[in-house]
Design brief:
This protein is α+β, with helices and mostly antiparallel strands. It has 2 domains: about 200 residues, 2-Layer Sandwich (Cytochrome Bc1 Complex, Chain A, domain 1), CATH 3.30.830; about 180 residues, Cytochrome Bc1 Complex, Chain A, domain 1, CATH 3.30.830. It contains 16 helices and 13 strands. β3 and β4 form a beta hairpin. The longest helix is centred in the first third of the chain and has 20 residues. The chain is globular.
Length: about 425
């Protein structure tokens, strides 16, 4: 397909592909994109678990534990560990998301052995010094308190607790849960999480299959056998209508959503196109045109398909004056229902498909992003062929297929949590 710019016909677009190698080493399978253009190696890995392993009343514990892994390990204090990373030019980090526990590093090729050594040491011999726990806890408590002081944080908390009342996804950290978490609970959480089983790994950069196999052995063989407990599957979000959280503020924040699709659903990509047309980023979405441009009721509004616990969920957010909160909610629901009933236009489908297909190569512009994106595909249960065929599948979508997927947008199922002093709700 050729494009025209300022009257000049550009060369035809070449199909985009990423040469993914599937590498097996013992019980671990890794995806590799070999790129020798720069002497840089990035590795990303994850286990199921993360915040889903937090005990009730200890929300935020696994996020604290993840942050502590790079705060000293073995005979290296936190300062010595940081110096070792800096001296070798290594970026190393760990995090606990809603349903996974992640690690990653990026290093120059000559520093790969040192990156492996420090990452392995962090996972097998974390110090969990009391002073480090106090620092990490203080940062976490500050973040939790700030979230409780903003309409956006309050609305998000109210939304997830109402949508998933009996699931870990509905529980967020609080100052109280963070203060209650003990050093022993942090260590016990890490022992349940950091195992040789359940690993997903992705790598990109200046290494081949043999080097990756050696890396996998050196990095993970010191971990205990077994796998972390699998997080519970996410149910469909509860329909709860509108829940208001009173908060003295000049504006109200609405966090809204509905059920999405399983990643295996054949309408997955058509639904992504429909959702981009309705609520995607930029100034082309219908919600932006109707609520921002036509009426000036917000600076921005958007929604996307969020994948968590193996399920896609549609979530979005908008801020508006308290006096216009009810109007925004009605307009949002009306556009939601209109898209479900009428579907998109041919032009809207062409523009959305061109954007999604055209931005795909930009997501693989460096080794760190490539490794992270490959890991995300693995967590979604994709095969390498899914990425290879992505552009062709998008280009083959018709208006009728997108309209069919759009019918799964359900204004009646749309629920919202609103924080502020909203009127008209």
């Amino acid at each position: 397909m050729s494009d025209t710019l300022f009257g000049v016909t550009l060369p035809p677009r070449r199909p985009f592909s990423v040469p993914i190698q599937v590498i097996e080493e013992g019980a671990v399978t890794a995806w590799l994109v070999e790129d020798r253009s720069l002497p840089v190696v990035s590795l990303a890995w994850a286990w199921p678990g993360g915040a889903a392993l937090d005990a009730p009343g200890r929300e935020g514990a696994m996020a604290m534990a993840a942050a502590l892994l790079s705060e000293g390990a073995g005979d290296l204090t936190n300062l010595a560990f940081a110096d070792a990373l800096r001296d070798a030019g290594i970026s190393l980090g760990f995090s606990a998301t809603r349903d996974s526990f992640d690690g990653s590093f990026r290093a120059l090729s000559p520093a790969l052995p040192e990156a492996i050594r420090l990452a392995r040491l962090a996972m097998t011999a974390p110090r969990l010094d009391e002073a480090a726990i106090a620092r990490v806890r203080a940062r976490a408590v500050l973040g939790a308190r700030q979230a409780l002081e903003t309409p956006a944080g309050l609305a998000r908390r109210a939304y997830v607790s109402a949508a998933f009342p009996d699931h870990p996804a509905g529980r967020l950290s609080s100052p109280e849960s963070l203060m209650a978490t003990t050093r022993e609970e942090l260590r016990e959480g890490l022992s349940r999480q950091l195992r040789r089983g359940g690993l997903l790994v992705a790598a990109a950069g200046d290494l081949d299959a043999a080097a990756l196999r050696a890396t996998l052995r050196a990095l993970f063989d010191g971990l205990p056998e077994g796998a972390p407990d699998a997080p519970p599957r996410l149910p469909a979000p509860a329909r709860f209508g509108v829940r208001v959280v009173p908060k003295a503020a000049g504006q109200a924040t609405l966090v809204f959503g509905q059920d999405g699709l399983l990643p295996t659903d054949p309408d997955w990509e058509a639904f992504q196109v429909a959702l981009r047309i309705l609520a995607g980023g930029g100034f082309q979405s219908r919600l932006t045109k109707e609520i921002r441009e036509a009426r000036g009721l917000t600076y921005g509004i958007g929604a996307g398909l969020d994948l968590a616990f193996g399920r896609g969920v549609v979530t979005g957010q908008v801020q508006t004056d308290n006096a216009t909160a009810g109007q925004v909610w009605e307009l949002l629901r009306a556009e939601w229902a209109k898209m479900a009933a009428e579907g998109p236009t041919e032009e809207e489908v062409r523009e959305a498909v061109a954007f999604l297909a055209g931005t795909l190569p930009l997501q693989f512009t460096d080794t760190r992003r490539t490794a992270a994106l490959l890991l995300g595909l693995r967590q979604a249960g994709r095969a390498p062929e899914w990425l290879a065929d992505r552009g062709q599948r998008l280009a083959a979508l018709t208006r009728a297929q997108v309209a069919q997927a759009a019918r799964r947008l359900d204004a009646a199922a749309l629920s919202a949590a609103v924080a502020g002093e909203p009127q008209g709700l």
